[in-house]
Design brief:
This protein has one domain (about 15-345). The chain contains 14 helices and 2 strands; from the N terminus they run ββαααααααααααααα. By secondary structure, it is mainly alpha-helical. It has helices at about 25-45, 55-65, 75-90, 95-125, 140-145, 165-180, 180-185, 190-205, 210-235, 240-265, 270-285, 295-305, 305-330, 330-370; strands spanning about 15, 20. Strands 1-2 form a two-stranded antiparallel sheet. It is globular, with a radius of gyration of 20 Å.
Length: about 375
């Protein structure tokens, strides 16, 4: 399984610290998205046995001293998942369940479908290879891949490997919507109940298992990190006592460790648990970071585009490197790949992601103004 890069947080609003908007999370998104692109680029060079000297620098300066995974894999995953839990919990506090789901799914699903359809076309053209190694796709393959049902079929059909994290987001959004009344009256209860459900799921998913059951175990493993983000927001807002939040968060982290050891659900190298712990600490620190860099328009714009970057960068980078690296060299090919990724990201963000977001908001506004007064 390809441990991905960027978990979409989808909401533009961010949790607010006592002093206002938490700009440090925007900068952290920029850093995490950069790490995510690096992880997959470095992996491509390693798999294709091509030299990538920047990997040696990262290993010497960061990975080896901190005993992290090779190529910093999973670092970006943890950061984005924790931030996702923080942001989604913040926006859920002021939305109705149906409105919450419409906005969240409206933000992630249309862009996901567009990118996966593009990837399916490229796979059938022989330009891109599916994560599950298919070089041609039937209509049924495309359908199961685009709907993410292919993660649970036999054989599996995964068009773009990074999309496995969308299963986590969909699960978390659905849980938040279902528990929204409790989240407002007894805010500690939903994350506590989630810990019990995760424990039960991991217990049932242990031992010999099919691919579908293993995938359920993966969701149960990684979603603990999103709930840790939820607890950070609940404690920050004063809705949950710090001691209660720390206790429930410790249980979730313990479940993540258990899942890593139990069934290899989190395995992407020997530094998984250490990486998760350090990244959670980094998020806690960055909550308080301010200054002109974090507040710049550039950082804000990049932060808003991290979901598009997350989805499209493998589809742009891998075929470009495969086609150009043997012809013009590694560095020039990588520069072309990054420029292509930036250009396609901008198009997708403007004309798919934000276009759908604006349409939903206009529909909500029209619906509210046309509703009869009570």
């Amino acid at each position: 399984m390809n441990t991905l890069t960027n978990v979409p947080t989808t909401a533009q609003a961010r949790p607010r610290a006592s002093g206002g908007y938490m700009h440090g999370l925007d900068l952290l998104r920029v850093i995490a998205s950069t790490v995510g692109v690096y992880v997959h680029t470095a992996n491509w060079f390693a798999v294709n046995q091509r030299e990538f000297s920047f990997s040696d620098f990262v290993r010497t300066v960061l990975a080896d001293p901190l005993q992290l995974n090779p190529h910093l894999s999973f670092t970006d995953v943890t950061i984005f998942m924790v931030i996702s839990g923080m942001v989604v919990t913040h926006v859920a506090d002021r939305e109705r369940p149906g409105q919450f789901l419409l906005r969240r799914f409206g933000r992630i699903i249309p862009l996901l479908v567009v990118v996966l359809v593009i990837s399916a076309v490229l796979i059938n053209l022989g330009v891109f290879r599916a994560e599950t190694k298919q070089t041609s796709l039937s209509f049924l393959d495309v359908l199961t891949g685009v709907t993410l049902a292919g993660f649970f079929t036999t054989p599996t059909v995964i068009l773009v490997g990074v999309t496995w994290t969308l299963l986590l987001q969909i699960t978390f959004y659905s849980y938040v919507a279902a528990t929204m009344p409790l989240l407002r009256r007894r805010p500690w209860l939903p994350p506590a109940a989630a810990a019990a459900l995760i424990c039960l799921t991991l217990s049932l998913a242990s031992g010999p298992q099919s691919d579908a059951v293993h995938r359920i175990g993966v969701i149960a493993c990684f979603i603990t990190l999103i709930f840790i983000g939820q607890l950070i927001t609940l404690v920050r807002s004063g809705k949950v006592h710090v001691g209660t939040g720390l206790a429930i968060g410790t249980v979730h982290f313990g479940l993540f460790v258990w899942a890593d050891k139990l069934g290899g659900y989190a395995y992407s190298g020997g530094g998984m648990v250490r990486t998760a712990f350090l990244c959670i600490l980094l998020v806690l620190v960055m909550m308080y970071v301010g200054g002109p860099v974090t507040k710049s328009a550039f950082v804000k714009a990049w932060s808003a585009r991290t979901y598009a970057i997350y989805l499209i960068h493998p589809v742009c980078i891998y075929p470009t490197l495969a086609a150009l690296a043997p012809q013009i060299g590694n560095v020039p090919a990588l520069l072309v790949a990054l420029l292509l990724t930036a250009a396609v990201t901008e198009v997708l963000h403007r004309y798919v992601e934000m276009a759908v977001h604006r349409r939903i908001r206009r529909w909500e506004k029209k619906r509210s103004t046309s509703a009869p007064a009570r």
